[in-house]
């Protein structure tokens, strides 16, 4: 797009790319007088169809304000998160929280079942009690029905964790819980399950 862009234009990127890549792209566009709003989305197909996505945005505030009315057509929650890359960083954090939750009950439910707990009842506890989360409420009912074709593949989920790891390495921030979850995903990827779903 670079040769066709003119000063004063705004590029809105709704894809999911890395935080560092989004910042580099914004700098490249800024040299041409073009704004970048990184605006990754969250929500499943149904929310995309009914225009109720969550959209997390990074970039100059003035650029965000210009494009927000368009983004409001796609999402019911459209948030300005900060300078360039902030939307991507927020999306990665959100996805990593989901991945950590999924890794936790995928490890602990088999333990309970192995020691004699009923999987349906254990699933009911993990979707209603203090250990519940969006991940457990959404994924455990699918798992109990033997349906693993829901959400991101293991490989795509791992990509977000890799992205956060790059940020942590750059800024020297330790995330031990994320590192533990990554090991769970790495085991699955090593077993050739990258194209399978959580």
Description:
With 198 residues, the chain is α/β, with parallel strands linked by helices. Helices cover 56% and strands 12% of the residues. The chain has helices spanning 19-30, 45-49, 61-71, 86-114, 119-128, 134-144, 154-171, 176-190, and strands spanning 10-13, 35-38, 41-42, 53-58, 75-82. The strands form 2 sheets. Strands 3-4-5 form a 3-stranded mixed beta sheet. Strands 1-2 form a two-stranded parallel ribbon. Strand 1 (10-13), helix 1 (19-30) and strand 2 (35-38) form a beta-alpha-beta unit. The longest helix has 29 residues, at 86-114.
Strand percentage lies at 5-15%
Overall strand count? 5
Give unreliable regions as ranges. none
Assembly annotation: single chain
Mean pLDDT across every amino acid position: 93
Spell the H/E element sequence: EHEEHEHEHHHHH
- Apparent shape: elongated
Alpha carbon gyration radius: 19 Å
SSE-based structural type:
alpha/beta
Largest sheet report: 3 strands, mixed
Give the strand order, joined by hyphens, for the main sheet. 3-4-5
List the helices and strands and how they pair.
Blueprint: E1 10-13, H1 19-30, E2 35-38, E3 41-42, H2 45-49, E4 53-58, H3 61-71, E5 75-82, H4 86-114, H5 119-128, H6 134-144, H7 154-171, H8 176-190
Parallel strand pairs: 1-2, 4-5
Antiparallel strand pairs: 3-4
Helix pairs in contact: 4-5, 4-6, 4-7, 4-8, 5-6, 7-8
Features:
198 residues; three-stranded mixed beta sheet; two-stranded parallel ribbon
Quick recap of the structure?
The chain has 198 residues and is α/β, with parallel strands linked by helices. It has 8 helices and 5 strands.
């Amino acid at each position: 797009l670079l040769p066709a862009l003119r000063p004063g234009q705004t590029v809105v990127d709704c894809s999911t790319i890395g935080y560092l890549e989004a910042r580099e792209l914004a700098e490249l566009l800024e040299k041409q007088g073009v704004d970048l709003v990184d605006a990754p989305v969250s929500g499943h197909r149904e929310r995309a169809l009914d225009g109720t996505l969550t959209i997390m945005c990074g970039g100059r505030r003035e650029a965000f304000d210009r494009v927000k009315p368009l983004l409001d057509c796609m999402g019911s929650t459209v948030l300005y998160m900060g300078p360039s890359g902030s939307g991507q960083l927020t999306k990665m954090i959100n996805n990593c929280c989901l991945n950590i939750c999924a890794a936790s009950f995928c490890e602990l439910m088999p333990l309970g079942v192995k020691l004699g707990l009923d999987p349906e009842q254990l699933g009911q506890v993990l979707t209603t009690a203090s250990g519940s989360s969006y991940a457990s409420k959404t994924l455990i009912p699918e798992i109990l029905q033997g349906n693993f074709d829901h959400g991101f593949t293991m490989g795509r989920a791992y990509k977000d964790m890799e992205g956060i790891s790059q940020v942590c390495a750059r800024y020297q921030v330790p995330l031990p819980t994320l590192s533990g979850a990554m090991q769970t995903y790495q085991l699955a990827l090593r077993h050739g399950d990258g194209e399978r779903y959580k």
